[in-house]
Amino acid sequence: MAAPLSLESVACDLCNHDDAELLVVKLGFHVVRCRNCSLVYVNPRPKLEALSAQYEVGSFFEHQVTRANDESWRPEAQARLELINRLHPTRGALLDVGCSAGWFMSVAQEAGWKVSGIDVSAPAIGYSKSRGFDAKVATLDDHGFAPGSFDVITMFDCIEHMPSPMRALQAVRTLLAPGGIVMITTPNVDGFFPRLTYRILARPFGAWDHPGPPGHIYQFGMRTMSAALERSGFAVIDGRTTQIPLDFSVGALEDSIVDALKGTGRRGTVAPAMPGAAESGTATGTASTRPRVPTPVRVMRRLVRGVGGVVAWVIAGSVSPTSQLFGKGDSMLIVARAAA
Question: Which CATH number is 48-244+327-338 given?
Answer without folding.
Answer: 3.40.50.150
